[in-house]
Write a structure and sequence with these properties.
heterodimer; A: alpha+beta; 6 helices; elongated; B: alpha/beta; Rossmann fold; 14% strand; globular
């Protein structure tokens, strides 16, 4: 019996201006309203056992946010033998119900039971794909600057951590960067927008879309950023922590990989 | 009118906390604007996170949106970074629901909860694209209204706000809506703003300042003269008689981003008759009207289920005085109001061991700190302010708190109270020291925080005649306390800026002439004056000097019985001679009991309005602290008995 659930959700529209912390609190309230038996931590101030993956910078959209929910052991055997079985006959209805309890713009894409051995999202995810809408320079100028960035052996950025200034090299975290067609569902917000597709590594440090655009020049304006995938990589292969297959079923790819091997 | 969202959106990447400006709260109504509806913009003149939880605003928001002839949206003061971005991009003040320009609304209605936000009111009217002075507005401009506790002396804002509403808003908001709706139904070319204002003045509880002339002599008002037959000589506040008829908010707003008081809030009663003489809220909200306990429970149950909150606050003044407090707390903690673990918070605790027992029952989590408000440092002082907490009360409460596992106790005090001596101020440190000692008997490293505010005399209270302490005097008293607390391990002192207290005093008791001062401070850039990072005393001093006024003439000056006070034509239901005799009693150290459980002393709040207290229990709550059941016999001018039993030193 699964005691953990992995949920994939999107965050799009006006709600992208809320913070990672705000989203965590939305989820806490939604889970309480759902009646799902979420396990709680021990101690003086018990908290629901919910783990979020990588933080999404405030202002960015995403089609691929994740959280893992630890469920409390069920008291009696429910019809489906699952902690959610009493209220929600299957994971599809659970996902739809959770979306109902979440604000507009935060929508559950898929939910699946997670094996006991799966490690945390924070540890597993090693890169992200992004779609970025920018304006301020022409497409041809942008292509040149992207090439220059990719050719550079290192790209220095100033960052503040714990009140101190650090000089970080951004270049190793930029896996790929290229112009692309306007993505589906992203209407151009500006007059002469261009779109970039980027893949960025999460280690040693992630790259914020805004930082990436800033190193392309101060005249390049980031209009919108959307995370499209988070990736788990192992042995030259990669997969998403939870994806939806052609039949609309949620798939925990790591399981599929293990079974296949 | 079109949404401003496309112009607002690009500004949000460059400002702090952009979620302040997006709306989208659970419980929000996004109304369709149509003919035949009066469109209200309800504005809280402080930041979103301070303003969103305001229950008064949320109640009116629901009531208006329930009416077929009205609709309401909300707006809050944009923070400095956003305001500058908006002005730079030509974006006016907007609503958070449809992101419509403020000028698309018929009424701009402000909530006035604190005096230091007055400059923000002017700034927001200006940001709305409306003339800040009422006299310069035309029939094409929105009507500017204000309600809330500060309207019991609205004179400093008289030049800027078209009409003020006194008292409970639940009933009067509909009456105002009808007057405005009828006026809007006329041909635009035929509308005269003066007709609208006269129509509003005829509504009970509505004060239209431009229909009164105020005469002055030196620092004082000599006469307030109605200029229209529609303007009553005295405007009396509105009071709803039965809270049970108003189970609002039914759909409390759940914000997307963090705000203060981020929890379910259920109002358990309105009004307070403890009779603390410094407390404006306790004076102007009488009589006590309790919500039936069954309704409280059903509101909690429905609210928790709808919002997903795991905390509920039972709100009122002195919540522990609610007749059904024990049953209600037991019901919530015991799972009668939902099957999840819920914590209860009581925003205002009474100081006694009984109350701590209740608090212990509810705080299974978060047992970090407990707050009490003795307000005065000595029994002499507490008798003068009628906060009748004996030292035994306080020490037994503190003992109960530490013995039940709390490690930190916070004590609220006022300094600058009438007749205050240095020994009263130093009494604060002594109480704090004793509380730390009590804590050492129970826990390791107990902390006691003494939080000290400078007293600001408020209109419609017995202390309205009292000359406020100067900033320098308050500062001296703070320094006395700092010295006295320094050597006490475990006792820490916090204090409010004395300069902010005296400016609050200006806005609190000023007359109409203060309006020009507020306008100057606003024009000099002085917004968000209740935020310490923005407060600037020099702006106020310069503005006072330019207007020929002074802190002395407004804040520091004692008034005598014969002086016409700037708010004498506005009534919270309290007789002026009751307030005066209570002031004389204070000076004579004569205490009064809580009239909920003892005979009426005819303050006027019930009798003149044909109202009665609505309480489920006719006896004082167990614990018997704060005056009830104590020997408060009049004539005992030197309360030796109390002093001698106080500390058992």
């Amino acid at each position: 019996m699964a005691d953990r659930l992995r949920v994939r959700f999107a965050k799009v529209g006006k709600i992208r201006f809320t913070s990672h912390r705000d989203v965590a609190r939305m989820w806490e309230r939604a889970l309480r309203r759902s009646g799902l038996p979420v396990a709680r931590s021990q101690g003086f101030n018990p908290r629901p056992l919910v783990a979020f993956g990588l933080a999404l910078p405030t202002g960015c959209e995403s089609l691929a946010e994740y959280l893992d929910v630890t469920l409390a052991p069920t008291q009696d055997a429910s019809p489906a033998g699952q902690p959610w079985g009493d209220t929600y006959p299957d994971l599809g209805s659970l996902g739809a119900a959770l979306s109902e309890f979440l604000p507009d713009g935060v929508d559950v894409v898929a939910a699946a039971a997670l094996g006991g051995g799966a490690s945390s999202l924070q540890q597993e995810v090693s890169s992200c794909s992004w779609e970025l809408e920018v304006h301020g320079v022409t497409a041809s100028e942008l292509i040149e600057r992207v090439e220059r960035l990719l050719d550079a052996p290192s790209v220095s950025v100033q960052r503040e951590r714990k009140g101190r200034q650090f000089d970080d090299d951004l270049r190793p975290s930029v896996r790929s960067l290229a112009l692309c067609e306007p993505p589906q569902g992203m209407d151009p917000s500006g007059r002469s927008s261009s779109w970039l597709r980027a893949e960025t590594a999460t280690r040693p440090r992630g790259v914020r879309p805004r930082e990436l655009v800033e190193v392309l020049g101060t005249d390049v304006v980031l209009a919108r950023a959307r995370r499209t995938q988070q990736w788990i990589e192992r042995d030259g292969d990669r997969w998403e922590p939870l994806s939806v297959d052609d039949f609309g079923r949620a798939v925990i790819a790591s399981h599929a990989m293990e079974r296949a091997s | 009118m079109d949404t401003l969202w496309p112009s607002i959106e690009p500004l949000l990447d460059g400002v702090a906390k952009p979620a302040r400006y997006i709306g989208g709260e659970q419980g929000a109504t996004v109304p369709l604007h149509g003919a035949g509806q009066v469109a209200w913009l309800l504005i809280y003149p402080d930041t979103y996170e301070i303003g969103l939880p305001n229950q008064g605003l949320q109640i009116l928001y629901e009531l208006l949106n329930e009416r077929p002839d009205a609709l309401a949206e909300r707006s809050y003061a944009p923070w400095l970074d956003m305001e500058s971005a908006m002005r730079g991009a030509g974006v006016p003040l907007f609503s958070v629901e449809n992101h419509l320009a403020a000028r698309a609304f018929d009424v701009l209605a402000f909530n006035l909860s604190a005096e230091l936000i007055y400059t923000n009111v002017l700034n927001l009217i200006d940001l709305a694209g409306v003339a800040v002075r009422g006299a310069e507005r035309t029939a094409a401009d929105p009507l500017v209204l204000a309600g809330g506790h500060c309207t019991f002396n609205p004179e400093p804002l008289a030049d800027f706000v078209d009409a003020f509403v006194l008292g409970d808003g639940e009933e009067v908001v509909g009456e105002i809506n009808q007057v405005v709706g009828a006026w809007l139904a006329d041909e635009p070319g035929l509308r005269r703003r003066a007709d609208l204002l006269e129509g509003l003045a005829a509504v009970d509880g509505v004060y239209v300042p431009s229909l009164y002339r105020v005469d002055f002599d030196g620092p004082a008002v000599t006469e307030v003269v109605p200029l229209s037959p529609k303007a009553p000589p005295v405007v009396v506040k509105r009071t709803i008689s039965d809270l049970a008829e108003w189970p609002y908010p039914k759909r409390q707003l759940v914000p997307l981003t963090e705000v203060v008081h981020d929890r379910l809030n259920v109002e358990v009663f309105r009004g307070c008759t403890r009779g603390c003489r410094f407390c404006q809220a306790g004076m102007i909200t009488r009589p006590v009207r309790e919500r039936p306990a069954t309704q409280v429970r059903s509101m909690i149950r429905a609210g928790l289920e709808r919002t997903g909150y795991d905390e509920v606050a039972l709100t009122s003044l002195s919540t522990a005085d609610f007749s059904s407090i024990e049953d209600t707390v037991r019901a919530v903690v015991g799972g009668d109001c939902g099957d999840q673990q819920v914590s209860v918070s009581l925003p205002s605790l009474r100081v006694d061991a009984f109350t701590v027992a209740t608090a212990t029952q509810i705080a299974h989590a978060r047992r970090t700190g407990l707050t009490f408000a003795p307000e005065g440092g000595t029994w002499r002082m507490r008798r003068i302010i009628n906060k009748l907490i004996t030292e035994e009360d306080l020490y037994s409460a503190v003992d109960a708190a530490f013995s039940n596992g709390w490690r930190r106790v916070k004590l609220y005090f006022l300094i600058g109270l009438p007749t205050e001596l240095d020994e009263d101020v130093l009494g604060i440190a002594e109480l704090g020291r004793r509380c730390v000692e009590i804590g050492r008997g129970h826990v390791r490293g107990p902390t006691v925080v003494a939080s000290v505010g400078g007293f600001v005399p408020k209109p419609q209270t017995p202390f309205q005649w009292f000359g406020q302490d100067t900033a320098a005097e308050l500062r001296r008293k703070v320094n006395l306390l700092k010295d006295a607390c320094r050597s006490v391990r475990g006792l820490s002192l916090r204090w409010h800026d004395p300069e902010a207290s005296v400016v609050e005093g200006l806005a609190s008791r000023g007359d109409r002439r203060m309006g020009a001062v507020i306008e100057r401070v606003w024009r000099a850039g002085g917004t968000f004056q209740e935020w310490s990072e923005c407060f600037d005393l020099s702006l106020w001093e310069d503005a006072l000097a330019a207007e020929g006024l002074s802190l002395e003439s407004v804040a520091y000056r004692d008034r005598d019985q014969s002086e016409v006070l700037p708010w004498d034509h506005l009534s919270a239901g309290l007789h002026k001679d009751f307030l005066w005799s209570d002031w004389q009693d204070a000076l004579a150290s004569v205490a009064v009991e809580d009239c909920r459980w003892t005979p009426c002393y005819d303050c006027g709040a019930c009798t003149d309005a044909g109202l009665e207290h609505v309480v489920a229990s006719g006896t004082a709550p167990a614990g018997g602290s704060q005056g009830t059941g104590q020997d408060l016999s009049v004539g005992d001018r030197v309360p030796v008995r109390f002093v001698s039993t106080a500390g058992a030193r």
